[in-house]
## 1
Amino acid sequence: MKIQVLKSKIHKVKVTEADLYYTGSITIDEDLMNAANLIENEMVQVLNLNNGERIETYVIRGQRGSGTLCLNGPAARKFSVGDIVIVISYASMDFEDAKNYKPSIIFPDENNKI
């Protein structure tokens, strides 16, 4: 049996941009992506601590070291610059393997740095 488990989490990161007219997705600083074990085009959930919104989208690699976290497309209507969010990805794995799996969880500072 396979189950979905937490794979990656960026906990309490600040939205730096919201680009309504971009095609869609979330742009994340490559340093944050690497630390959280996320890859480009991976599906993520984004949870907004300021207003309770929760969306699914995919990751676009942002400039390394920039601290960028930009909600693109329609998500820009649900997230504002300065909002604090949690970015989560999941993995499907065998039930027994999942018992020993350790997700990558990071806690960036107020400037979105590790």
Note: The helical segments are 30-35, 95-98.
## 2
Amino acid sequence: MTVGQLFLASLSSGVISPSELSWLTAQQDRFSRLEEATALRLGRLLDQGTIQLGCRLSPTKLHHAAVRDGWIEPLGRRRHRRPA
């Protein structure tokens, strides 16, 4: 993993995981000037709330949730509910 990869992943998903943040802080003494600037920008985005501390869901899990909610559930339990 590089600082650039971490920055792009965090920016695209809006999330940085605690383990990624730990890696970033543990490696900071080895950063080049460009990596330092990128890490500072990442910190500012965290401070602004643009990037949140959390975990990323894989696209596969998101797809399965969409299939379950959009296709399977309407044919299952919710299909047989009686109107109030």
Note: Strands lie at 15-16, 52-53.
## 3
Amino acid sequence: MRPVRQTEPTIPEAELSEAFIRASGPGGQNVNKVATAVQLRFDVERSPSLTPYQKERLRRIASHLMTAAGELIIEAARFRTQAANRDDARARLAALVAQASRPPPPKRKKTRPPKSAVEKRLRGKSGRSAVKKLRGRVAEE
């Protein structure tokens, strides 16, 4: 599949669903009473906003965040407020979609150092070895 050149897609609000859950971590008594963590769900498989290429890339990039049905789940509980966690979850989703919109980086080509560079390195090593051998005791005649 070839990437389609386009700007980063905007995901409509209707395609997202949010659930607020209790978070663990800092917050004192507040953490036991208020549901500040956000669970953002985005159905990648049925989204009309993404191209087939973007869907495939998103499946590869965020496979650990996806369900078997193709739903992307992002949990955000880094902050103490619901609004900040909501913004964090949406920013993470936007970053994932932006990354899926770009083509993957090219594969690294294996290279070898030139023969002259290897020889120069070995000459340097043997020269250093000779210097260290000369540091030994002087033999008496």
Note: Residues 39 and 75 are 4 Å apart (CA to CA).
